[in-house]
Amino acid sequence: MTDMTGLEIRHLTSDIVDVSDITVLPGRPIALVGPSGSGKSSLLRAIVDLDRNAGDVRLNGIRRDDLTAPEWRRRVIYIPAEPGWWGDLVGDHLNETDSTQLRDALGLSHIKHSQPIEQLSTGERQRLALALGLARHPTALLLDEPTAALDEESRTQVESLLDPMIAAGLVLIMATHDPEQARRLGLERLEIVAGRIGPDQTGDNT
Amino acid sequence: MTIDPGNGAVMLAAIFLIVNAALSLALQLGFVRQMAIAAVRMTVQLALVGLVLEVVLTSASAWLTFGVMGFMAAVAGYEVMARQERRFSGFWGYGLGATTMLMGSAVVTIFALVVQIGPEPWYAPRYAIPLFGMMLGNAMTGIALGLNALTGEVTARRRGIEAHLLTGATRWEAMKPAMRRAATAGLVPIINAMTATGIIALPGMMTGQILAGADPSQAVRYQLMVMFLIAGATGMGLVVAVIGGVIRLTDNRHRIRLDRLSG
After folding, report:
1. Per-residue pLDDT tens digits for B125-183
2. Is A131 contained in some domain?
3. Distance between first and last Cα of chain B
4. Does residue A188 form part of some domain?
5. N or C terminus of chain A with fewer C-beta within 10 Å?
């Protein structure tokens, strides 16, 4: 047990990734970079325990293995690049936490609960998933290319929503292909190559 | 009075297959081969089963009775597996369908024999074997359809189920829609059969009894009892099979485990 705050990946292995000693402090977000297929999404899936994996992962000193998977996933929230939907309608995915403000902030106020998910554009779905995820008050947030399908205006909306959250101490890992975005949000770069931490990774290079 | 059709009369009925074959050839529909194989298989299988039943019924041996029933269950278990588009790997591929089907059928058959019909001895093959066979046949269809729907559903909707899991849902919460679809798929045949029975179709068993000279109201009572039993055996076996399938398709960290399917 440590008093370490933030997300601590002491080691983590799955079929695809094998990493160790990654620490993400509150307010010190990380940009996961690397070519397509390098294992960025697989690493995020492994952290949130969605794929079979082994390792020692802790959040604010609490070991992942000491929590049930649903408990862990209520604290560590992962939003895939192409979010999935288990119901047909927008309303099927709204839960007890109110996401109205977040949806408004992301330019989704026109979307009705009765609307089929299928009718939304890719970008709208991506923003809706983000709004619903943020509404669940994550302790740690894992974003996979959150603005890949967005136009510039929506991307700005997402960034200006995340910025104050980071400043307020959000633990954030974001997989991104966009170095400009990483710079704007002040993300530290962590390169993943073939499921491992990249060779040119020498600590802080903000 | 019953009229026993002789072998000649039976062969005469096969004339209609030849008519079908002629149609198929004339219109190039291409089902001659399949139909011929099916007809020959049926003839051989039924002739053999007639012989076996005669031996078993006259012997009234417990060993022979349970041996025949065990063989039937083993073959039906294989059939459940063979009908799966995606099979569970390892023992579960055969075991899940076979054990749940056997369980549902055995519970219901024993109940019917001991409580309802009451032959002496309770496993009297004249009652036990046909009843068990009907339970197995229907449970087999229901469980095969149900498991097929479950694995198909989880494979097709994996992303949605994972999205639900990512909100902190348990595997049971996230799998509920898939379970519901699987249960429905497995129960459709028996529900349809109960709905249509007596109006659109006279069930084969009842028709057979009436043709063989039984009193129609007795035939109806048997048919009703058998339909209830079939619904019971199929439903019980199916529910356990679907729960077992969910346990196998997920793990205790609430992850989807499609790696436990093969092919």
Report:
1. 999 999 999 999 999 999 999 999 999 999 999 999 999 999 999 999 999 999 999 99
2. no
3. 54
4. yes
5. N
Chain A residues bordering chain B (beta-carbon distance below 8 Å)? 48-52, 68-71, 73-74, 77-80, 82-87, 95, 129, 132, 136
Contact A86 B253 (CB under 8 A): no
Cβ contacts of B170 on chain A, cutoff 8 Å: 70
Domain that holds residue A48: 7-85+136-197
Q: Mean per-residue pLDDT for B20-41?
A: 90
The predicted structure's pLDDT at residue B201: 75
Q: Is residue A127 part of a domain?
A: no
Contacts of A78 in chain B (CB under 8 A): 166
- Higher model confidence: residue B30 or residue A29? A29
The nearest CA of chain B is from the CA of A71 a distance in Å of 6
Show the CA angle centred on residue A125, arms to residues A120 and A128, nearest 5°. 115
A140 closest CA partner among A173, A100, A98? A173
Q: What is the mean pLDDT of each run of 10 residues along chain A (206 residues)?
A: 80 96 95 93 97 96 96 97 95 86 92 95 94 94 94 94 94 94 94 87 48
A84 and A103 in contact (C-beta within 8 Å)? no
Q: Taking CA atoms, what residue in B is nearest to A86?
A: B160
The per-residue pLDDT for A200 is: 64
Q: What would the pLDDT profile of B40-56 be if each residue is shown by its tens digit?
A: 999 999 999 899 889 99
Is residue A155 in a domain?
yes
Record: contact B168-A48, CB cut-off 8 A: no
Q: Is the pLDDT of residue B95 over 70?
A: yes
Q: What domain count does chain A have?
A: 1
- What CATH number did the domain enclosing A43 receive? 3.40.50.300
Token readout for A82 is 């192409």
Q: Which residues of B192-217 are buried (b: 16+ CB within 10 A; e: fewer)?
A: ebeeeeeeeeebeebeebbeeeeeee
